[in-house]
Amino acid sequence: MKVNPDLEFVRDLIRKGGSDVKKCSQCATCSVVCPLSPANRPYPRKEMIWASWGLADKLAGDPDVWLCHQCGDCSTQCTRDARPGDVLAALRLKAIEHFAFPGFMGKLAGEPRLLPVLLLIAALFLGLMVVTQQALNATAPLVFQEAHFEYEEFLSHPVIIGYFTTAFLLAIASAAIGAVRFWRAMEATAADWGTEERESFLPALVGAVGELLWHSRFHRCEVSATRRSGHLLVFYGFLGLLVVTSIATLLTILELPFLLDNPHLYPLGWGHPVKIAGNLAGLALVGGCGYVWYYRATNPEQNGKSTYADWLFLGLLLAVGLTGFGTEFVRLTPIPAVIGTPTYLVHLVAVFCLLIFLPYTKFAHFFYRLLAMTHARSRGRAVPPER
Asked: How many CB atoms lie within 10 A of CB 366?
């Protein structure tokens, strides 16, 4: 076998958190103790040697990189303290960059020094929205001054819906292109790894969705089994906010007053069903992020090394949740209205960053892990029985 190592790949992998990649002695302890690794071609032993050799293309199409949930069982048992879970987490970040479309966006979102550029893009996007609003209504205020105000005075719902829907659809299209590239890479590199009974694509996809929605693989982990609770809160908190926002947007477009407080649609009162659902989802999101933040900040030796990508994603989610509550309380309580302008601006920037950079941050785990789990089922790579 002729090996052409990509040394820059290895150096970048180390920068992204896989600093222990060269410690591996190939003892296979990690593959033995992993509760999720299939019997045939188990991980993460082979990924560790491929990573140390710099086999970038082989690793990019390796679905097992995504089947790993970084539970820490292998890292705590490693005889060389090589922490395979952290190495595979870094490989996932490399895969997101590799399949990103357009490619420069993946590198932009993955570099800490380029964070100001991301925020600048979001600020320019917001500035374009304000310019559009002023062009449509020159009397729209740029700063809230009165004791009682509505955010629609600053940016109307048609402007927000038009811009954010367009940005979200572009992000989904980019994510879809990356997902297709990943699936093709898996088909090319891992077609003959399975040995057990295989499922056709649709049943495999349905089964993978069920596993993902319930996070059922997390409970197999021993070292960090409690991590599942925080992930579920974050996952369903964000999903709830997405559903509530979509419902409110649809009601705004269709102007259905029978489900809202008045024919003018907004503002919604504290007791409105849509408002209650949104607040509950927001509490789940913020609470889950706080739990995960605490979990990652304490005992990193057991819980895994946290990287820039982890903190960026958690920071964006928390910013969306906290500023969302902030904008709500500013409008519905006797807080000075002038505070509403910066709070609202920060909230919009955070939402934009979260959505438009969806295919390039840890948000992309949803798409890539779902495809990897689907591929595993379709190739007969079942999770081994519980011990």
From this structure: 14
**pLDDT, mean over the chain:** 86
Interatomic CA distance for residues 247 and 337, integer angstroms: 27
Report residue 192's pLDDT band, with 50, 70 and 90 as the boundaries.
low
Lowest mean pLDDT segment, chosen from 13-22, 259-268, 351-360: 259-268
Give pLDDT, residue 16: 92
Give the global pTM: 0.90
12: how many CB neighbours lie within 10 A of its CB? 18
Q: What is the pLDDT of residue 193?
A: 67
Q: How do the domains of the chain map onto residue ranges?
A: 7-99, 103-378
* CATH architecture classification, 7-99: Orthogonal Bundle (1.10)
Most confident of 102-111, 113-122, 251-260, 281-290: 281-290
Stretch 181-209: mean pLDDT: 84
Label each residue of the chain as H, E or C.
Answer: CCCCCCHHHHHHHHHCCCCCHHHCCCCCHHHHHCCCCCCCCCCCHHHHHHHHHCCHHHHHCCCHHHHCCCCCHHHHHCCCCCCHHHHHHHHHHHHHHHHCCCHHHHHHHHCHHHHHHHHHHHHHHHHHHHHHHHHHCCCCCCCCCCCCCCHHHCCCHHHHHHHHHHHHHHHHHHHHHHHHHHHHHHHHHCCCCCCCCCCCHHHHHHHHHHHHHHCHHHHHCCCCCCHHHHHHHHHHHHHHHHHHHHHHHHHHHHCCHHHCCCCCCCCCCCCCHHHHHHHHHHHHHHHHHHHHHHHHHCCHHHHCCCCHHHHHHHHHHHHHHHHHHHHHHHHHCCCCHHHHHHHHHHHHHHHHHHHHCCCCCHHHHHHHHHHHHHHHHHCCCCCCCCC
Whether 334 and 147 have beta carbons less than 8 Å apart is answered as yes
